[in-house]
Every structure is written in C-alpha cells, then in structure tokens.
Amino acid sequence: METKNYYSVSQVNEYIKDIFDNIQPLRNITIRGEISNCRGKNKSGHIYFSLKDDNCIINAVIFKFDTLKLTFEPKNGDDVIVTG
C-alpha cells in the first residue's frame, strides 16, 4: 500500500510566503483584474473580494488601514490595478 505525504495548512502557507519573499518580481506585485464577489467593508473594516480575468480568479483583501487610503468604493465589475 502506498503512503501519501501530507502538509499542514501552515506548512503550505510558509512555502508560498517563501516563494513570494524570494522571487523579486513577486515581492511587490501589481495585478490588473476585475473585482468580483466584493462584499464591502465587514465589521472589522476589511474588504474581501476576488480578482479575475477570463481564465483565473484569486481571492484578495484590503485591510482596514489600507481602506482609509482608497479614493473610490470598490464594487463588482470594476477593472482595477492593485499592488500587494
């Protein structure tokens, strides 16, 4: 019988963090996409949404402190350029 290895959520997050920290173009990446699944500010003041294009989607968040710098109200369908 084959034994499968597994990783914890923490291990996967640490691996992904290492990739983003160590590959220069990903350290402060700028992405263009369309906002979807935007729920507006939650109780904590964060804004959760997705960025999508014709082929893929990624989940994103604007933390409360950064929402104070926004010059517009993010909404579904907005074409945006974000940095993070």
Brief overview, please?
With 84 residues, the chain is α+β, with helices and mostly antiparallel strands. The protein has helices at 9-22, 24-27, 64-67; strands at residues 30-36, 47-52, 57-62, 79-83.
Q: Overview of this structure, please?
A:
About 25% of the residues lie in helices and about 30% in strands. With about 80 residues, it is an alpha+beta fold. The chain has a four-stranded antiparallel beta sheet. The radius of gyration is 16 Å and the shape is elongated. The chain contains three helices and four strands, in the order H-H-E-E-E-H-E. It has helices at about 10-20, 25, 65; strands at about 30-35, 45-50, 55-60, 80-84.
Determine Rg (CA atoms, Å). 16 Å
Major sheet: size, sense and barrel closure? 4 strands, antiparallel
**What share of residues is helical?**
25-40%
Low-confidence stretches: none
Shape type: elongated
Count of alpha/pi helices:
3
Question: In total, how many beta strands?
Answer: 4
What letter string, H or E per element, gives the SSE order?
A: HHEEEHE
Mean pLDDT: 91
Oligomer: single chain
Distance between the termini: 44 Å
Task: Tell me the β content.
Answer: 25-35%
Order of strands in the sheet with most strands: 3-2-1-4
Structural class by secondary-structure content? alpha+beta
Topology diagram in text:
Layout: H1 9-22, H2 24-27, E1 30-36, E2 47-52, E3 57-62, H3 64-67, E4 79-83
Antiparallel strand pairs: 1-2, 1-4, 2-3
Question: What tags apply to this protein structure?
Answer:
84 residues, alpha+beta, 4-stranded antiparallel beta sheet
